[in-house]
Design brief:
about 210 residues, three-stranded antiparallel beta sheet, 11 strands, about 25% helix
């Protein structure tokens, strides 16, 4: 009887140990389950990333490109195709040299036909409005009176020719003599007037 009670007693002790371990596991699991549940329910502040679309590259051709020949000599480009570091400290009427750079999208070459961006130009030190009349074009007026005395003038808008380099604004106002009358150029009207007067003097006295 005593021999049979020994294994039974050990079994009871083992059951108590297992019961204790199971309770400890439950208690310890309950302690860690609460923060885990909280972390799942409350993920914390979220970060929002805004994707900014990349701006589309402009394919529009600059207006000045219509005047800029491709792969020509840089020194012969029109003034609208280049930017030059000019200054007004030069001596009027004297030769002067300025550093220039081609504008974006403009392609040109040097004397050896090598691609070039920076170069120099040689010009005469003078403002655009001081150029000779052959170096710029001006608007005409058909409303002013050329037959008046003294001869009338009008304000014209003048623009320097493309390949002429000068200082200051390339478009400027200028006072010009009226050169048109009744649809005829002043010189033509003058010639007709002279012919009419000569013809009138040649008529017989009785036909005047």
């Amino acid at each position: 009887m005593a021999a049979a009670a020994g294994p039974l007693l050990q079994l009871c002790r083992l059951c108590r140990v297992l019961l204790f371990l199971s309770q400890f596991y439950i208690l310890s699991g309950g302690e860690h389950s609460q923060p885990l549940a909280q972390s799942i329910k409350d993920p914390g502040p979220t970060r929002t990333f805004t994707v900014v679309p990349r701006a589309a590259e402009s394919t529009e051709i600059p207006p000045y490109m219509m005047k800029c020949p491709s792969n020509g000599l840089c020194s012969r480009l029109p003034a609208d195709c280049i930017d030059c570091a000019t200054n007004f400290s030069c001596v009027y009427g004297k030769p002067v040299t300025f550093d220039c750079t081609v504008k974006p999208s403009v392609t040109c070459v040097d004397q050896d036909f090598k691609s070039q961006k920076n170069f120099i130009i040689n010009m005469t030190c003078r403002f655009c409005w001081q150029l000779p009349e052959t170096d710029y074009e001006c608007s005409n007026s058909t409303s002013c009176m050329t037959v008046s005395c003294p001869r009338q003038r009008y304000t014209a808008n003048c623009t320097v020719r493309d390949h002429i380099h000068c200082l200051g604004n390339r478009t400027f106002p200028k006072m010009l003599y009226c050169n048109w009358t009744g649809g005829y150029k002043w010189s033509t009207a003058l010639a007709l007037s002279v012919q009419v007067q000569i013809g009138a003097h040649k008529l017989p006295t009785g036909l005047h």
